[in-house]
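User: quick one, fold this
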Amino acid sequence: MLMMCWFYCIPFAKGLFFASAPLIFLLSLFVLKRGIRQSRPGLRQLSFMFMFIAALKICTADIYLLRDYLMCTFERCHDTGFFKAAQVGGLVVLLIFSLFLFNLYRNFAQDRRQKEITPEQAHLSFWANLSMTLVMVLIFWLAAPWAGYLTVGHVPQLFMSVPWQNLAMINIAVLLVGFWKLEDCIWIYNPKEKTKKYQTSVWTAKDTLWVAVVLFCIALAFSYASNDVLSEVMPQRSGHLQIDLNSIDFSAIGPGFSPSPQR
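Assistant:
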């Protein structure tokens, strides 16, 4: 179990480290929308704080840790002068973005009257059902390699034509739209005034969205093992920027993060 965790969890943790800034920025948008819909100044302030933290990490830590890939992408490998210019450029971008956030925050500082939107008006059921359907398709797509090897001895060509990563990105996009629509119709349940259909339903579209998220996370965890089967027969795409997370030096974070020596 420890070896499997080292083989799968460590690369995932490193990838999550670099993906944390975009994820924090995305979370801040949802926090901002809820703060606007519910007229809560604290949530709006928190959202802008998250945006600044995400920009700070990208413009400082990410640029430093990905310096080798950034320089080689612009054909400036081993050019320390170019890297210093990139660092200065990152700080300038951070300053400009901070000023933009400050001016944007002033526009959202005051509460505004919000129009009540029901789940039917937001078409929440459509997006919830679409999310669940796409998650089921993704699970079927990930299970296909195993079923193919156990039955016919190879992976059917159909599942090679469309990589599972594309389906996962579509799932993420649809889920984000669904939860964005959910923020439009966040309502407060009142036990004394359950007169509308969406207030008396035992199972709502919101429940379907959250179940789709749980199933998607399970499918995403299973995709690590399934990807090993698919990668043996999947054609390599050399045109994309390939980043070897194991070769990145994390020693700047602490002595325990140094890359292990190659044997």
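User: anything notable?
Assistant: The chain has two domains: 14-114, 116-234.
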